[in-house]
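Progress note, sequence design subtask.
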């Protein structure tokens, strides 16, 4: 292992989808890059052991503990400390019982130091009440410093870039506020539907699946004040303040959609009211952002697969070039695919005439960082859990504040008071969402 002592990574739910698609590939890539050292592939595979057992009985966990202890005895180096990482690639309903079993049977017992940590995936609850209940159940067993709540958007290259861009560039510092920024969009689009995840998805819907976590985390990083330092508590303190400043969501600033054909999934009820698309305006009541709409938009089965952050600046006062016709300045960060950031600017149209045209200062990662592999979000986050860095993980109070924002809206959707509008698969979503965007003040420029 990369540090002294022995590291055991236990993936619970090893035969499930998440483990197969994300956890194991991330572990393997870390191994390949030497972050988790081993001589060759066969050695890596030999390091893996499979144990089966049920989640709610001591027997299986005692066996697991025995196996970990044997591994530790065999591998421990001189300092003897033992590190145990439990990755719960499981449905949240079993988190409490599994945590209880880990606490009862599988904690690190070495006198020479080390630790036990648990990693959990969203959804952390379905609303404020259930999330708080889950947090308390786990919180009774483990300290906050032992719990790593993954939101994989926090492991994405461009999301991690936000802090650097905002706080390491003099250029942005004076501009990043209500005096200069007109509106902000944070958009997630997928060009496929729920693809066999009907059971899970219909229970949660797009707001719980994407908006309340991934997009809201991005919003925090766009909107937060400069933290005292890069210490994980300092960063999360600032994120919580942003979340606590979000005003209650207004009905007229929400557009919900459901793609045509969604209910054909065998696990989706015929009268499902679950949104597969949502566009929601959040307003932050503080000195920096009062009056600036943050439009969070997410949808399945749309025309493209893309996630980006689009910051649109206000018009130039006293414009002498008639720039308004060309469009406003925009700063865009494309999170995926093909990471990029670009700035839309008015420039002189090359040639004899004095006319303006909108052009772009373009930093496309593929071209600029040719040959550099951008690590998958899960690789970074797994490594962070091993190193004990919680900067990119969601703290309990952050989670509570996030649920505070969306719970009233979600309850109204759950009881059918708000209904999604049907939209065609492969479209931009309901036309009403584009109207909402224009009402929010966004001025469309060519190409968007
Ligand atoms: C997951 C959601 O959290 O994020 C999925 O449950 C979604 O519905 C996925 O497809 C998107 O992740 P990414 O990294 O592909 O944008």
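Output:
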């Amino acid at each position: 292992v990369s540090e002294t002592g022995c590291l055991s990574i236990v993936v619970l739910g090893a035969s499930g989808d998440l483990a197969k698609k994300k956890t194991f590939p991330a572990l393997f890539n870390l191994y390949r890059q030497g972050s988790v050292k081993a001589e060759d592939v066969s050695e890596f595979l030999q390091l893996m052991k499979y144990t089966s057992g049920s989640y709610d009985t001591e027997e299986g966990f005692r066996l697991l503990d025995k196996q970990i202890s044997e591994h530790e005895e065999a591998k421990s180096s001189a300092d003897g400390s033992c590190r145990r990482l439990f990755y719960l690639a499981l449905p949240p309903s079993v988190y409490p019982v599994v945590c209880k079993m880990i606490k009862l049977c599988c904690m690190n017992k070495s006198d020479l130091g080390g630790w036990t940590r648990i990693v959990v995936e969203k959804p952390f609850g379905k609303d404020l009440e259930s999330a708080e209940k889950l947090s308390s159940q786990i919180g009774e067993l483990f300290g906050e410093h032992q719990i790593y709540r993954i939101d994989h958007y926090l492991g994405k290259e461009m999301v991690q870039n936000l802090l650097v861009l905002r706080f390491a560039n003099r250029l942005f510092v004076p501009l990043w506020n209500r005096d200069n920024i007109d509106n902000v969009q944070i958009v997630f689009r997928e060009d496929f539907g729920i693809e066999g995840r009907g059971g899970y998805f219909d229970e949660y819907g797009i707001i719980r699946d994407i908006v309340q976590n991934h997009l809201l985390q991005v919003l925090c990083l766009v909107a937060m004040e400069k933290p005292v330092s890069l210490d994980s508590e300092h960063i999360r303190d600032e994120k919580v303040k942003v979340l606590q400043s979000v005003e209650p969501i207004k009905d007229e600033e929400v557009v919900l959609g459901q793609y045509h054909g969604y209910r054909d999934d065998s696990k989706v009820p015929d009268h499902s009211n679950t949104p597969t698309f949502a566009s929601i305006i959040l307003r932050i009541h503080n000195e920096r952002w009062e009056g600036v709409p943050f439009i969070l938009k997410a949808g399945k089965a749309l025309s493209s697969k893309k996630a980006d952050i689009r910051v649109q600046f206000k018009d130039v006062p006293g414009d002498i070039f008639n720039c308004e016709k060309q469009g406003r300045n925009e700063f865009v960060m494309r999170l995926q695919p093909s990471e990029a950031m670009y700035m839309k600017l008015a420039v002189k149209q090359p040639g004899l005439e004095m006319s303006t045209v909108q052009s772009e200062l373009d930093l496309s990662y593929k071209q600029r960082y040719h040959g550099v592999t951008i690590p998958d979000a899960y690789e970074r986050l797994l490594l962070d859990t091993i190193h004990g860095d919680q900067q990119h993980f969601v703290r309990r109070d952050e989670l509570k504040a996030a649920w505070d924002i969306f719970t009233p809206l979600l309850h109204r959707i759950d009881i059918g008071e708000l209904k999604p509008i049907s939209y065609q698969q492969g479209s931009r979503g309901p036309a009403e969402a584009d109207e909402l965007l224009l009402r929010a003040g966004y001025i469309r420029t060519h190409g968007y």
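The radius of gyration is 24 Å. Work on this subtask will continue into the next period as scheduled.
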